[in-house]
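Reply to dn_fold:

You asked what the input looked like. This is it:
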Amino acid sequence: MVSAEQTESPYSLALTVAYDGLAFAGYARQPGQVTVQGRLEAALSVALRREVSTAVAGRTDAGVHSLGNVVSCEAYGDEPDSDALLRSLNALAGEGIVIRQIRRAHAGFSARSDAIEREYRYRIVNGVVPPLFLGRIAWGVRKPLDLEAMRAAAAHLVGELDFRSFCVTASSLGKRTFRRIDAIEIRREEHLGEQCIVVRIAGNAFLHSMVRVVVGSLVEVGSGRRDAAWLADALVACERAAAGPTAPAHGLTLWRVGYPDGVWL
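and this is what came back:
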């Protein structure tokens, strides 16, 4: 419990958190489900000896992985030093979660509202041979993909645009759906001896399932089922049916979250 002398938080803690999305029913706490938030808050409560509530930069869906999601909570000045707290939390969080870094931020810092950039990466293994090591973190697409066509289509999505067609309809009702995408890069990489296509998407914020719908739409173009100009028309339509399918969750990783330098102590 927080004592009477600790009613005001002098600073905040920011945790950089990685996790295997297939081990959890999503980030957000859900009754009766194993979630990243549930595990993290339980570990923090034990390590800090008080109830802890958190904010998160990206509320990832079930199956979506993280390498650099950021979670914040208030601090009261009586916490163990960062190295000791890091060791404790990694011992307490359980399998499938790794706390990679702990930083101090100004009082009132929110991992969600103070973020100015989020970067996601989506992996695709393209070809008739299924992935082995990458099977948990990549979508297997058998039909050959034309990367140049995908890049041409992606160019229509860069900028501050209305992405209503590229999110879960129920999540957008009555809400502003403009978001800014700063970059979409599509390249071939090798991981653990297996070839894959990596789609890197960076922007200020994303709607529910937006990255997965963008990737699913790009695969429609890359496979020849649609042309590159189709994505421009899908944007204008502002309805979910106009865009492509939602790519599987397990191919997506929240890679990095960016903040202004001034938030750190």
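Helices lie at 36-48, 82-92, 147-154, 169-172, 210-222, 230-237.
Hope that clears it up.
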